[in-house]
Design a protein that fits this description.
The complex is a heterodimer of chains A (262) and B (293).
Chain A (H helix, E strand, L loop, with lengths): L4 H26 L18 H8 L1 H34 L5 H9 L6 H15 L5 H23 L5 H9 L4 H30 L2 H6 L6 H9 L5 H31 L1
Chain B lengths: L14 H6 L2 H21 L2 E4 L2 E5 L3 H45 L3 H11 L7 H12 L4 H8 L13 H24 L4 H9 L4 H29 L3 H7 L6 H10 L4 H22 L9
Chain lengths: 262, 293
């Protein structure tokens, strides 16, 4: 690197950016360990009592499992549906392709609030109760475009040679799909799943509108917000952040491996 | 989509499997996305009183939207558009220097790590991210404490429940998103263009203004459009940080759903929100080239 005025300015930009971006997160994490009643300075000492309190809170722990369940199942379904659609559209060109692509990508342009409200009204008319299932259905809707786009972008001509080789050697269509294409696409499938799971895990508005008795974590956190700042909320927030970051790192590693593997 | 010369994209076998593979996803989207939107459009044209549909094919809800309470809903729409435009502009101004430094001033091997680190909070829970700004902005927050500690304020200073707090929360989130899209665009600009300009005598400022910036506009446009669409439809950030002193449109919609269960009016307001987003898309469409990002 050349050491000029530009270097100092660059460093200042990065430092300022880091402070702005991390200030609230650092406060969140640090004061989740607060040995006191309010999560603001002064820091009164290190304590895990708020984590203890959060993990003893039945509503929170139940919501935690609900969130994990909804995130895993809805992401699994979104990934499978998205991959199948991408596979069909990438390998078979018809005049309907453009319309199918537009349909599949459309939910990305509409606010979660409107998607959730539309589903709430439709379910009410159809006599379907508010439930975790309803939330999961909504999460598949919002994650399907992403899973589709990730798979579609990676389904290029480079796998076709392998698929043809498998066919020439006598593999049936399902065998080729499951034993050749899916393993080649594993990194993209993993990335699509991890991204979907992260988004579902954090999603609030749809879960808020479509759930009643069994709720997800963001909905419980929302109801806890009414009582104002509390180190328990910091502790919960830190846990949620840790899970998201773990999922993200998993996705990142998968993408890295793909790039290295070419 | 990459194609290898001479190899058609289509495989020979499995026409049935291929033909049906997209069906489940398309049916899902039709059933749980398109159908609800159509239902909403229809419901927005009805009027209900005491649980009974009293009017079909009426624009009464849109009339209510325009005139109710001296135009409170219209004002919510105006607030939403104002806040979203401010947020979009500020986010670009914050994100561009970060993306620029990452792309051109940081050694290549550190770029990816730094990028991932800088946008890490992008992935924290949306609700939690807004809450964590309360730790900074509220009456007990660190800004208030700092001002009192420095003797600049006599009592607690509450910066929450203001438009500024909403804007700050939004800019924090969308600056990270824009850093990603602008960075992705900047690293695709060939270095030879910039070097050629410099060799031909352009000053660093001229290289930036005439080469780098124009070529990076697609990334800015995509990011700005995403920012606009996501910010104008968001309920969480304005509700937690802005409070209800000044309503944004999504807050007004949620009030209809929650307090009065007035779905026809809420639907009409959602249609207005979608119309605004569509309008923004049409204005932006020429500049949106997703494949460049």
């Amino acid at each position: 690197m050349r050491f000029r005025g530009g270097t100092v300015a660059s460093a200042l930009v990065l430092i300022a950016a880091a402070i702005f971006i991390f200030l609230p997160v650092v406060l969140l994490v640090q004061f989740s360990f607060q040995d006191g009643l309010v999560p603001v300075p002064p820091f009164k000492g290190f304590s895990l009592r708020w984590y203890e309190k959060a993990l003893e809170n039945r509503r929170l722990t139940e919501a935690l499992w609900n969130s994990a369940l909804v995130a895993l199942l809805s992401s699994l379904l979104a990934t499978i549906l998205g991959f199948l659609a991408a596979y069909g559209l990438a390998r078979r060109r018809t005049r309907w392709n453009r319309l199918a692509e537009l349909t599949l990508m459309a939910p990305i342009t509409v606010s979660y609030l409107i998607i959730g409200m539309g589903l709430l009204m439709t379910f009410t008319m159809a006599g379907i109760q508010k439930s975790l299932l309803a939330v999961g259905i909504g999460h598949v809707v919002i994650n399907l475009p992403l899973a589709f786009a990730i798979c579609y972008a990676q389904l290029g001509a480079h796998q076709v040679a392998y698929e043809r080789a498998a066919e020439d050697l006598g593999a049936g269509p399902w065998q080729t799909l499951l034993l050749v294409t899916v393993p080649i696409m594993a990194p993209s499938l993993g990335a699509a799943f991890a991204l979907s799971a992260t988004l579902s895990w954090d999603e609030f508005v749809i879960a808020f509108l479509l759930s009643r008795f069994d709720v997800t974590l963001p909905v419980v956190i929302w109801s806890m917000l009414r009582s104002g700042l509390s180190p328990e909320l910091n502790a919960v927030g830190t846990l949620v952040f840790a899970v998201s970051v773990a999922a993200l790192l998993a996705a990142e590693l998968l993408i890295f491996r793909r790039q290295r593997g070419g | 989509m990459r194609t290898i010369a001479g190899l058609p994209m289509t495989t020979r076998a499995a026409p049935r499997l291929l033909a049906w593979a997209p069906a489940p996803a398309v049916i899902w989207t039709a059933l749980f996305f398109i159908l609800p939107l159509l239902a909403m459009a229809l419901v927005s044209l009805t009027r209900r009183e005491r649980g009974q549909t009293v009017d079909l094919w009426t624009f009464a809800n849109y009339g209510t939207f325009l005139t109710q309470g001296g135009g409170v809903f219209l004002e919510a729409l105006r607030n939403s558009i104002e806040v979203t435009l401010i947020v979009t502009v500020l986010s670009v101004l914050v994100a561009y220097p970060i993306a620029y430094v990452l792309a051109y001033r940081v050694p290549a091997r550190w770029q990816r790590v730094l990028l991932v680190l800088l946008v890490l909070p992008f992935w924290t829970s949306y609700v939690i991210r807004s809450y964590s700004w309360l730790l900074v902005l509220s009456e007990k927050g660190i800004i208030s404490l700092a001002l009192q500690g420095l003797g600049l304020a006599d009592g607690p200073v509450g910066l929450g429940n203001t438009r500024g707090a909403t804007v700050l929360g939004f800019v924090h989130f969308f600056a990270m998103l824009l850093t990603l899209t602008i960075y992705a665009n900047l690293v695709q600009i060939r270095e030879s263009y910039r070097r050629a300009a410099a060799d031909l005598g352009a000053s660093p400022l001229q290289v930036f203004l005439r080469i780098t910036m124009p070529l990076s506009l697609p990334g800015v446009a995509v990011g700005a459009f995403l920012t606009f669409v996501l910010a104008i439809g968001d309920y969480v950030t304005p509700q937690i940080l802005g409070g209800s002193r000044e309503l944004l449109l999504p807050q007004a919609i949620m009030l209809q759903v929650g307090r009065t269960a007035d779905f026809p009016l809420a639907s009409a307001m959602s249609m207005v929100l979608m119309a605004v987003v569509t309008l923004a898309y049409l204005l932006f469409a020429r500049h949106l080239r997703m494949d460049r990002v």
